[in-house]
Amino acid sequence: MIFPIQEFENLETPFYYYDLKLLESTLKAIKEAAHYANYHVHYAVKANANPEILRVIQQAGLGVDCVSGGEIKAALNMGFAPSDIVFAGVGKSDREIEYALKSDIGCFNVESIPELEVIQMIASRLGCNANVALRVNPDIDAHTHHYITTGLEENKFGISMQMLEKAISYCYAQPNVKLIGLHFHIGSQITTNEPFRILCERINDLVKQFAEKGVVFTSINVGGGLGIDYDDPDRNPIPDFKDYFDTFNKYLKLSPKQHLHFELGRSIVAQCGSLITRVLYVKEGLKKKFVIVDAGMTDLIRPALYQAHHKIENITSKSDVTDVYDVVGPICESSDCFGQDETLPLTKRGDLLALRSAGAYGEIMASQYNCRNLPGSFAK
Ligand code: LLP
Fold this sequence. Notes:
Blueprint: H1 5-8, E1 15-18, H2 20-33, E2 39-44, H3 51-59, E3 63-66, H4 69-77, E4 85-87, H5 94-103, E5 107-110, H6 113-126, E6 130-137, E7 159-160, H7 164-172, E8 177-183, H8 194-211, E9 219-221, H9 241-251, E10 259-264, H10 266-269, E11 273-284, E12 289-293, H11 302-306, E13 312-314, E14 322-328, E15 337-345, E16 352-355, E17 376-379
Parallel strand pairs: 1-17, 2-3, 2-10, 3-4, 4-5, 5-6, 6-7, 6-8, 8-9, 9-10, 12-14
Antiparallel strand pairs: 1-11, 11-12, 11-16, 13-16, 14-15
Helix pairs in contact: 2-3, 2-9, 5-6, 8-9
């Protein structure tokens, strides 16, 4: 990636830099790969709700997957059509449900019978109907970090396959709830298609099983989860969307009347974002050299929370000589470390470093721990 370093010089660090051209190319690749008439791609707003990012995604014509009233509000303000909004989440509050119903969103992805009861109660009070898809926990191991796997029986998400029939009967008994489909999401940062293939098979079995009982689902939502290349973002700036969508096309048996929904977050926005930080000090320890930067785990928590690694580049130094450093932030926690034994060009105070692939779950997860400012952003 080529960084507009001149323009960075006047900006206060740390900040998120978003390459909007790359985002646009990524969205174009999605549109080409998901060209099937009944495929609908939603963007999972939780990955990044920066208005510049949302604007480009809205203009590309995607729908959205929201997990809070705040995300629904951000999406509506950005001009997404209410019918293109799905509302997911295991703990929707009464206030959020009411707001979503009044906004006339497309569908609630419902995670339990108690939630259905509340939706029915509020919809009846408001005199409206709620479209509902039941989130099924398909018990599939997505082979990803245990904090971001969601489709296993032991996870809190969804309704188990054994309890699905009861939930479906419950829906039919509610006058203000209209069951339109099933929803799945098996985890995030999934880097092989095998878990998605298994998901298709699970869905085929379920759809067939319920079709025999006269239950027809017009909408199937397979969630998100497609992973990206954190090791070498320039090798794969755009994920292999063709392979991903073709997997569903190949293995999922849909009738022409069924709509297939996707909720992609990371694969859309991760590679277009970098966290830009300035080197404060280069400190010689007894055994190590530390590069201390002005960004910390408050700006990008993924390394501290998931042992994630973001490629680190010195975008200032032109030196051919390299050295080995630990790159750490200023927060009073040992986990505030972006990389150990990183080989970088000779690095000095004032240099700018880019932490790559930080467009997803970066800025949006920033906090003010230590009374720090939230990171700024610059999109181009
Ligand atoms: N749909 C549902 C129901 C989800 O829970 C998620 C993500 C998505 C879609 C979007 O998944 P994606 O395409 O981005 O993988 N903070 C973690 C990731 C948490 C993902 C939570 N759910 C991280 O930084 O790795």
